[in-house]
Amino acid sequence: MRFRLNGKRAARILGCAVFCLILCAMAFFNRTLILEPVAAFLHGGSFQEMKGTLQENLLGGRLRYRNELLTLNGGYARLEGRDEYNAIQTMTNGMLTAVIDPLPDVSPFTENVSHFCRFLEGEGIPFLFVMAPYKCPVTENLLPAGVTDYTNTIGDLVMTQLRERNVPAIDLRATMSQTREQVEKYFYRTDHHWNAEGAFYAYQQIMEAIRADFPETKTTYENAELWEKTVLPNWWLGSHGKRVGPLYDGVDDLDLYLPVFDTEMSRYSLGVWAYKGNFRKVSIREWFVQESDYMRLDNYQRYLGGGYPLTLHRNQGAENQLKLLMYRDSFMLPVECFLSTEFTSIDVLDPREYGAMSEMDYVRLNPPDMVIMMNYPGTLANEFFASFGEDRPLLPGEIKAYGDLTVRGSADAEQGYEILPADFESGKSYVLTMDGIQTRDGAPEGATVALYDGDKRLDLTIFDIEYGSEFGFRWGFQLPQKETEGEYRLRFYAGINGATEGMELDYQGIRLQEFAAKPE
């Protein structure tokens, strides 16, 4: 009997042989990760402990050449002709996606958002929910036979339930993900996010929605001709692509929108450095825009450098003096940057990560002119939204005046800061305001105020001095609920991020207003 080996079968056998050799090499280079838990089992450990440790070692960050193995395994999956690998699905148009199945219950989310909307109505603050699209078209099924995805079903349910509750909402899927052509235009092939063109279109739609509540809003920079679009071909690998490797479905082009008009603004993101300057310096993380490690860099985060619990955008020269408060998921990153050119003040919070205070407390302590919430369907059943909109009514209390304070530079950046004592109480909220901040020596880009409990820093904010001189200085914060009182104090710095050295400035007319929870 003659055995014939056709080209496709030969390629599979060769690929299998290569893969086996790679597995042997991986086992050799990671032998300690395997031998250590096996040895512990042979010396009396349980089988479950050995199994758990092996799983942790081989799937965690300790595994050497993990990305190389994933990449080669993805290449082998492509060689086999598979359309699904490592929980990533290839659609019939070649784009990658991750399906949601089974269908989650979204009613807790819509109930909480409705409750939050009613609260804002009582405060006289307009609210808007924006449904961001996903890359699975609404009217066309691009998934292989037998594959079910409930992403758009989630979107439909949320929009229906919000409208039944009279919550103002717009659905960007109507113009961004109805068809295959729209999805291919506005989304990355290997990532779940929209591309820069999609984010820019969303920014235009949100501006139009804002004008419905504030007709006087000016449309200064919505014209795409005022932005330069750059496309870097084959530049990065998206979130789905990182799960399957570049050999499975290739890599993505990277697009970038930068303004051709002059800009001057500032941005502070909780826990990281503050930035002041033009749009590129403030909003673009240059080190993300580079070709190198496909498996490590996430170039979608070139705008802002990633998602943060809280981000403050300040733009003294913006045409629109509205103060926006925005709740977001990662789709908002490029959109908030585009919007920061239009408005003097935008606070952006991620309710999945920001835990310093409730959504309603933040509104009371830092009142905005409008609140916008934008999410794509995949995050709407997230457990972190279970407590969204929980209320703990705050009553304003005593205002204490502390006068002026001069902060002098120090040769040691960790010493010499002036500390303002305050009679803080655990669980209460406070609003810090000042009449002004005047520079004495040099020109600090900003001023930093930090809240401490003993030597532990609990929170901080950064003031753009130029912005605050025109629009005021205000910071609302909340002390943690504790059984025993802490050693709370405020520490004032000259400069952003505590960069006091060589600078000197005056804080003028410092005041603290107390807010306490309403007795039940």
Key terms:
520 residues, alpha+beta, eight-stranded mixed beta sheet, five-stranded antiparallel beta sheet
Describe the structure concisely for a colleague.
This protein is α+β, with helices and mostly antiparallel strands and 520 residues long.
Task: Characterize the structure shown.
The chain has 520 residues and is an alpha+beta fold. The chain is built from 15 helices and 22 strands. It has helices at residues 7-29, 31-42, 47-59, 66-79, 107-123, 151-164, 173-176, 180-186, 196-213, 239-244, 246-249, 279-283, 332-339, 359-365, 465-471, and strands spanning 84-85, 88-90, 96-97, 127-131, 169-171, 227-236, 252-259, 265-269, 274-277, 310-314, 320-328, 343-349, 370-375, 394-407, 418-421, 429-434, 436-441, 446-453, 456-464, 473-478, 488-494, 504-517. It is globular. The N and C termini lie far apart (88 Å). The mean pLDDT is 86.
List the helices and strands and how they pair.
Layout: H1 7-29, H2 31-42, H3 47-59, H4 66-79, E1 84-85, E2 88-90, E3 96-97, H5 107-123, E4 127-131, H6 151-164, E5 169-171, H7 173-176, H8 180-186, H9 196-213, E6 227-236, H10 239-244, H11 246-249, E7 252-259, E8 265-269, E9 274-277, H12 279-283, E10 310-314, E11 320-328, H13 332-339, E12 343-349, H14 359-365, E13 370-375, E14 394-407, E15 418-421, E16 429-434, E17 436-441, E18 446-453, E19 456-464, H15 465-471, E20 473-478, E21 488-494, E22 504-517
Parallel strand pairs: 4-5, 4-13, 11-12, 11-13
Antiparallel strand pairs: 1-2, 2-3, 6-7, 8-9, 8-10, 10-12, 14-22, 15-21, 16-20, 16-22, 17-22, 18-19, 18-21
